[in-house]
Amino acid sequence: MRKTALIMAGGRGERFWPRSRKDMPKQFLSLTDDGRSMIQLTVDRIAPLVEMEDIFIATNRDYAGLVRSQLPELPERNILCEPVGKNTAPCIGLGAVHMEERYGDAVMMVLPSDHLIKYTSLFVSTLSDACRLAEHGKDLVTVGIAPDCPETGYGYVRFRPDEVQGRAFAVEKFVEKPDLETAKAYLASEQYLWNSGMFVWKVSTILEQLREHLPETYEGLRRIGAAIGTDQEEQALEREFRQFKSESIDYGVMEKAKDIYILSGAFGWDDVGSWLALGRIKRSDEFGNVVSGNVVTVDTKGTIVQGGDKLIAAVGLEDMIVVDSGDALLICEQGHAGDIKKVLENLRICNRTQYL
Amino acid sequence: MRKTALIMAGGRGERFWPRSRKDMPKQFLSLTDDGRSMIQLTVDRIAPLVEMEDIFIATNRDYAGLVRSQLPELPERNILCEPVGKNTAPCIGLGAVHMEERYGDAVMMVLPSDHLIKYTSLFVSTLSDACRLAEHGKDLVTVGIAPDCPETGYGYVRFRPDEVQGRAFAVEKFVEKPDLETAKAYLASEQYLWNSGMFVWKVSTILEQLREHLPETYEGLRRIGAAIGTDQEEQALEREFRQFKSESIDYGVMEKAKDIYILSGAFGWDDVGSWLALGRIKRSDEFGNVVSGNVVTVDTKGTIVQGGDKLIAAVGLEDMIVVDSGDALLICEQGHAGDIKKVLENLRICNRTQYL
Questions:
Q1: How confident is the model at residue A32 (pLDDT cuts 50, 70, 90)?
Q2: Nearest-by-CA chain A residue for B334
Q3: Residue A149 gets which letter from DSSP?
Q4: Which of A299, A327, A336 is closest, CB to CB, to B311?
Q5: Do both B243 and B296 map to the same domain?
Q6: I need a surface site. Which of A321, B144, B273, B322 has the fewest CB within 10 A?
Q7: Which residue of A has its CA nearest to B326?
Q8: Which of A270, A293, A323 marks a domain boundary?
């Protein structure tokens, strides 16, 4: 069966402000040293599994130009523009009806566009196994990550260690982001994996699940699907999408569905969820600093400095984040990385949209 | 007797990097909200005491243009250019021989160009008293500041509380910068004042003291004085000044001299010794932040941010200093304010002179 991929690239990447901006969000930035953007790396990574013509990018209209310029080899019609962000369930449904229209049925990988993976060959092998499993049944397959800390920023998946299909375990349940105590208990139990947001299923399987668990969305998706290739396509998409309830695939489908399998992905995954990720991804100096650009450090440790042309002198800093983006500069204590969104709120309230 | 002033403006102000630069040092910057530079404020402040034609500025050649442009009403010949910095004793001696050449004798106030004083009228009244005392005798008069903390960055002056002349106390001794324990003992004793670097004496008195305590410098100064107004003036200055031993007036004269009196100046003095001074000089917000420029703060307290056009977002900062100067940015933990010079050392070693 044909393998397809839906790469979700509609996010705003606010936690990577001020480099990530409303007109150039995180997935289009290069955070590694190779100059490739996150979305380019995502496409590179699945090249051994999927033909370029079978890769779809779901994004919002404002980013269609960025997708085109960063992925010029991608067929234009594979860029699916959501009229408005409605979270992942409608996004995945939109991908599914396009794939159904084009191929009838297919194996569909769903991938975020803004994660980093260190060991591509291990990733490809895991996804390949997931495809095989998804193709020969009606299972929903997901890839989990073995936790190395009680992270409270991710959803978790509880699996049944004694119920296996090849490398995959049966899923007992999807659970939302836990508090710290719960996360510690999950870690200790050895029966939970992080929900990585990567899924594999057949197009027919996920449409069936959407019909069962999100029937209104499913009906709208059907009307969108029927209009594909007609002169009503744009109108139908606009009309139906705006009416969709905003819903994540995790809450809308995975938490309710049966027959889910999970593979534990051990391929150096990082969701690059905040600037702190740079401390993991990039090589640090002897004082634990990750520094790039025109920077002088004195008595500074554990600090991330992403500079540019402007000289940045960091004196006596510890566990800080400093990011220069030309017109804006962030200086943030690492424990407050989550508060970057408060800066954006402040800018929005003051209508200083040029900085968003 | 005519009153004159020598304002010493040869310093580099490195502790105010990156705003203070080798071609625009601290004394030429405005750190207050009135837009007047430190040296302009110094001149403004003594206007009630001294005619403009009797104010001399000692500086190095590179800053003569800055002095001229910031003090256009000052006679050109009142700008005394040291060929090379030799600390305060030769600087003061140079002023003295120029004043002697012009006026025979005069009362001479010696003032730093980079201090701030809150209550000008109290300052003028103190200096006026000091002038009266200096004029009617051969005393060296200095102005001290009653310490409000055991500061280790200043020299101290021990006075005799029972030996007074008007508002002035006899000085027992000048002492150099103490360690913290000593400074605490000084504070507890109530017999020490901070050495503010402000002095008042007759020109004839200080020249006599230089002859006694720094005879070689005195001889050279005499040769410089003899050449003033001749075509040998420039040559004599160049030749003699380069041979002077580098010496502070405190160590070279004040620590050795007798007949010194000190007035306690209570006029809101601040030597603006580092960026930390801004926390004292400027109004802070409810979280103890002193912020100017294009700045957004989130969960930030006790922090000084001197921004410019570039947006600076400060998130979760505590007791930091952030200064943007266009081409360079300083981010410094307040306890490390003294380490700014290490940044400059680093820049010098790497020959990045554009940032000095």
A1: confident
A2: A316
A3: S
A4: A327
A5: no
A6: B273
A7: A310
A8: A270
What is the residue type of A259? D
3-class secondary structure, B29: coil
Residues A17 and A80 in one domain: yes
Give the structural domain span for B317.
277-355
* pLDDT tier, A202 (very low <50, low <70, confident <90, very high otherwise): very high
Check if B348 contacts A (Cβ < 8 Å).
Answer: no
Q: What is the value of pTM for the model shown?
A: 0.87
Read off the pLDDT band of A248 (50, 70, 90). very high
pLDDT tens for each residue of A304-334: 999 999 999 999 999 999 999 999 999 999 9
Q: How far apart are CA A243 and CA A217, in angstroms?
A: 9
At residue A320, the 3 state secondary structure works out as strand
A116, A135 contact by CB (below 8 A): no
Q: Residue B33: is its pLDDT beyond 90?
A: no
What number is the ipTM of this complex? Answer: 0.86
Could you give the number of structural domains in chain A? Answer: 2
Confidence class for position B199, pLDDT limits 50, 70, 90: very high
Out of A270, A292, A320, a domain closes at A270
Which residues neighbour A296 within 8 Å (Cβ) at sequence distance 6 or greater? Answer: A311, A312, A313, A314, B343, B346, B347
Q: Indicate if the pLDDT at residue B85 is higher than 90.
A: yes
- Could you say which residues from 1 to 30 on chain B have a Cβ atom under 8 Å away from some Cβ of chain A? 17-18
Query: Which of B20, B298, B309, B355 would best serve as a mutation to test chain A binding (most A beta carbons within 10 A)?
Result: B298
Q: Let me know whether B73 and B206 are in one domain.
A: yes
Same-domain check for residues B91 and B213: yes
